[in-house]
Amino acid sequence: MKKLLSIMLMGMFGLAVPGMGAAGGGGGGGGGDGARTSAPVKPEDPQYGQGVKAIKAGKFAEAITLLDGVVARDNTNADAYNWLAYATRKNGDPAKAIPIYEKALTLDPKHRGAHEYIGEAYLMLGDVAKAKEHLVTLNSLCTFSCSEYRDLKKSIEAYEKNGGKSKPAASR
Q: Helix or strand or coil: residue 30?
């Protein structure tokens, strides 16, 4: 009974239930231990993982090249578009990142990371109103406050407090 309750609670909050074959959240990798799932898990593109590693190492130009290849092969991967936009923004081009984030959001309108990061890109461009639109969306997507909402809210507050002088540049 205790295990059943635990599984039910984990399922309610979108957490992976061990042994139930749930897919991983960020990149579509999955895990099963042989348990059946309703849809087969698509194998992760190796360049996707390499692109994410490049981002975490601060090698944004390298990540852009890798992730461009991923989205060329799979134009339905919202996570890959989100990471590509993130690398583009961090590489110094927030304006070019906006349409890439929009593609991610077209594919997955509830992608919390894309909403947070496009909001930060808009702040970099001085468009507080657009950043706030994505904050409102995040507020509706997060049942309880989520890190994406809190992070974007802090960025907006810092931007407003400093009269636009504090922009989310290359942090995160």
A: strand
Is-contact 37 21, C-beta < 8 A? yes
Question: Cα separation of 125 and 160, whole Å?
Answer: 13
Alpha-carbon distance 79 to 86, whole Å?
A: 10
Task: List Cα–Cα distances, 156 to 5, 10, 100, in angstroms.
Answer: 39, 32, 21
Instruction: Give the SS3 label for residue 23.
Output: strand
Q: What is the DSSP letter of 22?
A: P
Q: What is the pTM of this model?
A: 0.73
Q: What φ, ψ does residue 113 adopt, rounded to 5°?
A: -60, -45
pLDDT of residue 169: 59
The closest of 129, 73, 125 to 99, measured between CA atoms, is 125
Tokens 């895990």 correspond to: 31
User: Mean pLDDT throughout 118-146?
Assistant: 95
Q: Give the range among 5-9, 55-59, 105-109, 139-143 with minimum mean pLDDT.
A: 5-9
* Whether residue 86 has pLDDT greater than 50: yes
CB atoms within 10 A of CB 36: 8
